Amino acid sequence: MSSSQPSTSLALVLLVGGRALAGSSALLSPLNMTPLFGLSITPSASFLSRLFGSRDLLLALGSWFDVQGLARGQFVRASGVAARTVITLGMLIDAVDVVSGLVDYNSGTLSQRGAVIGAGGAAALVGLAVSVLSQ
């Protein structure tokens, strides 16, 4: 794994774009995202969706932009080590999401649709992160 800035590869664009899309959708329209994952709309679903959304949106921003610069309102491309750290943390979170989805699917608390979209989507993000980090 190199410490240089990740190149602007298709994998990086898909990783950041997918996170940003999922995150902003969950933040802005949480009750529309809930059924997409095969989950029931409950009073707490909006809050849980927004928790997911904020996490994914911030991981997208931190994978592309310098986190300290963002805190100052500056949109500067992330340096190699900082971007790779955020991408690695996101990949680890996604790996836990894959395991969580499989556990819930096997216990009957997550539908097949939820497992495919949730755990499958997380697995795809793990693959994209591995691709980006191997460049």
UniProtKB/TrEMBL annotation:
Signal sequence, renumbered to the chain: 1-26
Q: Which domain of life is it from?
A: Eukaryota
Q: What does the UniProt keyword field contain?
A: Membrane, Signal, Transmembrane, Transmembrane helix
Query: Which positions, given as ranges, span the membrane?
Result: 115-133
Q: Can you name this protein?
A: Uncharacterized protein
Look up and give the organism this protein is from: Rhodotorula diobovata
